[in-house]
């Protein structure tokens, strides 16, 4: 493996860390309704825990109401129970063959708690990126030790990895601050 390969794989892994962060942040509630909030809920589907999106159609009725339409009529009670028992604090109501999930307005206290959760997610992502930097630097040192690259190339490559790390950490900070702003706006 060459220094360029190490840098390329490290960048790909750092990009995946950013994508993972964005995915995790989508699940954190803001003031608006978003079908992604319900995606991590599992429903008991004939004895198997199954993601809600695989047994029902998720949609938006308006800015503060989600709709869930199970594909099988006999799944209504199980879907409603799964939403109610999730840790999201939601209270679904069945209307015919659609379950309406009103999103309660966030209190100031809950908003502050959510920003702490967002900061924690950001910190976890930064740690992941820094661990990737460490792994890349160790691989580069091993290449230099095995005389596959020169010490100058090793130093240059480590500088490139550091610049890449700084760029990804800055992007994480930007994503976190945007999400905090989104949560705190009433």
Descriptive tags:
alpha+beta; Topoisomerase I, Chain A, domain 4; Gyrase A, domain 2; four-stranded antiparallel β-sheet; two-stranded antiparallel sheet; 4 helices; 16% strand; Ribosome-recycling factor; Ribosome_recyc_fac; ribosomal large subunit binding; protein biosynthesis; Ribosome_recyc_fac_dom
Can you offer a commentary on this structure?
The protein has 186 residues and is an alpha+beta fold. The protein has two domains: 3-27 and 107-184, Ribosome-recycling factor (Topoisomerase I, Chain A, domain 4), CATH 1.10.132; 35-102, Gyrase A, domain 2 (2-Layer Sandwich), CATH 3.30.1360. The protein is 57% helix and 16% strand. The protein contains four helices and six strands, in the order αββββαββαα. It has helices at residues 3-26, 76-85, 108-145, 151-184; strands spanning 42-45, 48-51, 56-62, 65-70, 93-95, 98-102. The protein has a four-stranded antiparallel beta sheet with strand order 3-4-6-5, with helices on one face. A hairpin with a 2-residue loop joins β1 and β2. α1 (3-26) packs antiparallel against α3 (108-145), α1 (3-26) runs parallel beside α4 and α3 (108-145) runs antiparallel to α4. The longest helix has 38 residues, at 108-145. The protein is elongated and about 70 Å long. The protein starts with a helix and ends with a helix. The mean pLDDT is 87. Responsible for the release of ribosomes from messenger RNA at the termination of protein biosynthesis. May increase the efficiency of translation by recycling ribosomes from one round of translation to another. Belongs to the RRF family. Pfam families: RRF. Its main location: cytoplasm. Residues 21-184 form the Ribosome recycling factor domain.
């Amino acid at each position: 493996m060459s220094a360029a390969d190490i840098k390329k794989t490290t960048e790909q892994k750092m990009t995946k860390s950013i994508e993972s962060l964005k995915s995790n942040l989508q699940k954190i509630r803001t003031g608006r309704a978003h079908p992604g909030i319900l995606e991590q809920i599992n429903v008991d589907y004939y004895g198997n825990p199954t993601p809600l999106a695989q047994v029902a159609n998720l949609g938006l009725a308006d800015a503060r109401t989600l709709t869930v339409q199970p594909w099988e009529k006999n799944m209504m009670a199980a879907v409603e129970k799964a939403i109610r028992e999730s840790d999201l604090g939601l209270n679904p109501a069945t209307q015919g063959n659609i379950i309406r999930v009103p999103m309660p307005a966030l209190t100031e206290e809950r908003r502050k708690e959510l920003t702490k959760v967002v900061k924690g997610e950001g910190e976890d992502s930064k740690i992941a990126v820094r661990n990737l930097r460490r792994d890349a630097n160790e691989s580069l040192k091993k290449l230099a030790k095995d005389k596959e690259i020169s010490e100058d190339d090793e130093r240059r490559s480590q500088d490139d990895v550091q610049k890449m790390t700084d760029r990804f950490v800055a992007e994480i900070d930007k994503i976190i601050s945007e999400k905090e702003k989104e949560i705190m706006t009433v």
